[in-house]
Amino acid sequence: MSRKILVLPGDGIGPEITAEAVKILNACRDAGLDITLEEGLVGGAGFEAFGEPLPAETLDKAKAADAILLGAVGGPQWDKLEDISKRPEKGLLGLRKNLNLFGNLRPALLYPQLAEASSLKPEVVSGLDIMIVRELTGGIYFGQPRGIEEREGQRVGFNTYVYSESEIERIGRVAFEMARKRNGRLCSVDKANVLEVTMLWREVMERLAADYPDVELSHMYVDNAAMQLVRAPKQFDVIVTGNMFGDILSDAAAMLTGSIGMLPSASLNESGQGMYEPCHGSAPDIAGQGLANPLATILSVAMMLRYTLNETALAERIERAVGSVLDQGLRTADIAYEGTRKVTTAEMGDAVLEAFRAQR
Ligand code: NAD
Ligand code: IPM
Ligand code: MN
To answer: ipTM score here?
Structure first.
């Protein structure tokens, strides 16, 4: 049966990078993969067309899709919207929440060819392979009450950091299973020295550990984890953490791999349906100039093939194609350095396409 992929380019560099990833999806179809592609509007693009960052039509298409490929949302032109429910980011958050995409996988993998592009010394990052498992539909991003209101003569802003045991347990199981398939080490990152919600988080992770005797569980406070990620990142195998800590730590981890433009992601629900997107944003500072690195989005397609479509061989073929263009010395500006050849977004996409097709 043909599987449905919904493509949501979004804003800023979103359309440029998804166009390159769609080339690869089409090549997968040419190679025999039975998929149909559809497009939709989300974020600022949804707001401009329908007055909503997550138009009903887009949500319907998303629910009906097996997998979604999303570019990025947001931009300065929407930052001042009075009604915050109309902000582009609400479109993305609404998709995650409505589809129950609680399990966010963010693999920080260093391609050996990019050791020189990392902001850390090559010996600190060479061989780096970390999987960050971020809870995506709870925590402080969604907790109630939230808002800005008048209290005792001044305005106060407030959010609620809340996790239930069942929310912690289900993301914990994703992470333990992931660690089991990798190197058997799981580090749970929290702030259990201060925040009750993460005291509970730690307790639940401890309890789960009994079901995974083959996985070595450790705990780390988030401030130390941020430091350890830039001091000695190879100590980590799988990291599991809440929504906001995961957001922040994954951007830091991205830089270890050379650029935020290299970090793909998968966001999964219990039925295996997934949304796939680069971890970076809409990069308004470079939008429309052919400067954006499309590899995080292309590698997100590989994750889609692996985690939703169960097409591991095609996923690996994409990953090898990326390796091959890096071998050729091709680099978008964010990962370029002396001795490499600077290319545009589309040139990079075309090179990956060619390397993909050249394989059998
Ligand atoms: P950003 O990730 O968009 O950009 C941060 C920096 O990284 C910028 O200098 C940008 O040029 C660079 N960068 C990002 N992606 C790149 C790529 N593929 N190739 C080369 N360089 C790249 O983060 P920001 O500037 O904080 O946010 C910009 C907008 O994006 C905001 O509206 C924010 O809300 C939104 N955002 C969206 C997502 C998403 O859609 N998943 C994620 C993060 C931020
Ligand atoms: C990400 C982004 C989003 C997040 C924003 C745009 C809502 O930063 O996907 O990492 O904070 O989760
Ligand atoms: Mn982020």
So the answer is: 0.98
Peptide bond just before 122 cis, omega within 30 deg = no
The full set of domains in the chain, from first to last, is 1-102+275-360 (3.40.718.10), 103-268 (3.40.718.10)
1, pLDDT greater than 90: no
Contacts (Cβ under 8 Å, ≥6 apart) of 320: 355, 359
Do 221 and 168 contact (CB within 8 A), yes or no? no
Pocket of ligand 1 (CB under 6 A): 13, 17, 72-75, 89, 92, 260-261, 277, 280-286, 292-293, 296, 334
**Which of these is catalytic: 61, 111, 141, 163?**
141
CA distance 345 to 343: 7
Instruction: Specify whether the backbone of 306 is left (phi greater than 0), alpha (psi in -120 to 50) or beta.
Output: alpha
Tell how far CA 54 is from the center of its chain: 19
Contact 126, 138 (CB under 8 A): no
